[in-house]
């Protein structure tokens, strides 16, 4: 009996010794699981905090750059850790995939692309169709003195004021085809309608009398075929640089050999007042142009500029004489033209941008040559047309943009003002 009792006591002692490590292990496991759950909760909280901080930083940058309105919130910072079980789902409004993040990035660059499209071309578009309507107003007054000075102070003769007022409306259809990421081909087909009012003082020999005549003209203008080639993409310090070359065909009605309406003659049959019966719609000569344009983004501004040269080829016409009573065939050679411009645009948000720029075009004197004669420069045919441009672009849809441009003439050879509306549609 004593031996039996001793055996039972020994067995219970051994069982207790075995249960003690097991209980200790269970306690350690519970402690580790508690630490793991705490770390999971802390990790999820830190991820949410990182997202909130990233959103605040991006929103602040967007407000500073003028792009805050309507911007999709950026994606959370990428981490190498795998998703943790029990962590909270991303807050609504954050980009939850790479596709959404890229879409937000593309939306933020929309205003930049619209500015680039107006300066040169968008090389990432396969086909762009553009419809535009431009109104321009010209008003030229010239004082004409027909007489002589007596005693170097008194003018004896007729004083007449000549005034020419012109309104032109141009519809232009343009197609831009992106051949590859560096080359686009362009076609511009304008249709022009013009109304011109001629006024001349001194009608009938009276300085107080004014004669007036109104003429019109409409038809297709000069068609241009051109190409844009991207020389350099935009870099950290380098602007996107594009080379442009083009040829303009004389498809419009040339200003030479037009019929004239004689309104007044002197007693000796000298023509005092005559106007063209119909307004021209083109230059009448072939032209070739080459130019460079550059665009550089400097958040929140977009800087752009261009420079180029237009060469006009000589061409013969059946009549180049401005006298309605005579017909003299000959050749015409328009002077070469240099143009340049520069400006800055500000992107308010991903859909709207405002631009201000200056453009100038300087043309040399034209030359004419009657058949069998010598080249003679046409006095007063040189020009310097400087214009201040104010533009606004607004993205109507993901594929269409509305562009409005107000041009203010700064020199007598530029239009008094012009107003253009364009709607490029990207396919």
TrEMBL record:
The keyword Coiled coil applies. Residues 29-63 form a coiled coil. InterPro entries: FApF (IPR025737). Pfam families: Phenol_MetA_deg. Keywords: Coiled coil. This is Transporter.
């Amino acid at each position: 009996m004593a031996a039996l009792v001793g055996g039972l006591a020994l067995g219970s002692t051994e069982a207790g010794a075995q249960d003690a490590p097991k209980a200790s292990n269970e306690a350690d496991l519970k402690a580790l699981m508690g630490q793991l759950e705490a770390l999971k909760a802390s990790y999820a909280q830190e991820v949410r905090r990182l997202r909130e901080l990233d959103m605040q930083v991006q929103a602040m940058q967007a407000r500073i750059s003028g792009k805050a309105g309507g911007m999709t919130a950026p994606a959370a910072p990428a981490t190498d850790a795998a998703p943790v079980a029990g962590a909270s789902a991303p807050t609504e409004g954050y980009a939850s995939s790479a596709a959404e993040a890229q879409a937000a990035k593309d939306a933020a660059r929309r205003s930049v692309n619209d500015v680039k499209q107006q300066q040169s071309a968008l090389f990432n578009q396969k086909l762009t169709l553009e419809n535009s309507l431009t109104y321009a107003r010209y008003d030229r007054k010239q004082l004409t003195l027909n007489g002589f000075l007596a005693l170097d102070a008194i003018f004896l003769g007729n004083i007449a004021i000549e005034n020419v007022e012109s309104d032109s409306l141009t519809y232009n259809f343009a197609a831009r085809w992106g051949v590859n990421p560096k080359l686009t081909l362009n076609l511009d087909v304008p249709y022009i309608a013009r109304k011109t009012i001629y006024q001349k003082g001194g009608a009938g020999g009276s300085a107080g009398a004014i004669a007036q005549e109104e003429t019109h003209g409409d038809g297709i203008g000069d068609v241009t075929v051109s190409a844009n080639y991207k020389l350099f993409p935009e870099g950290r310090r380098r602007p996107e640089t594009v080379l442009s070359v083009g040829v303009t065909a004389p498809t419009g009605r040339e200003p030479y050999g037009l019929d004239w309406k004689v309104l007044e003659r002197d007693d000796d049959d000298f023509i005092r007042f005559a106007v063209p019966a119909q307004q021209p719609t083109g230059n009448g000569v072939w032209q070739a142009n080459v130019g460079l344009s550059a665009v550089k983004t400097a958040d929140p501004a977009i800087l752009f500029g261009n420079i180029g040269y237009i060469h006009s080829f000589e061409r013969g016409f059946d009549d180049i004489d401005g006298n309605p009573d005579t017909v003299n065939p000959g050749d015409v050679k328009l002077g070469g033209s240099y143009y340049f411009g520069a400006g800055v645009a500000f992107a308010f948000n991903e859909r709207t941008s405002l631009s201000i720029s200056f453009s100038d075009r300087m043309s040399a004197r034209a030359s004419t040559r009657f058949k069998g004669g010598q080249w003679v420069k046409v006095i007063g045919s040189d020009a310097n047309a400087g214009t201040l441009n104010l533009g606004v672009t607004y993205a109507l849809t993901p594929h269409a943009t509305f562009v409005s441009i107000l041009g203010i003439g700064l020199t007598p050879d530029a239009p008094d003002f012009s107003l253009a509306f364009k709607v490029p549609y990207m396919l």
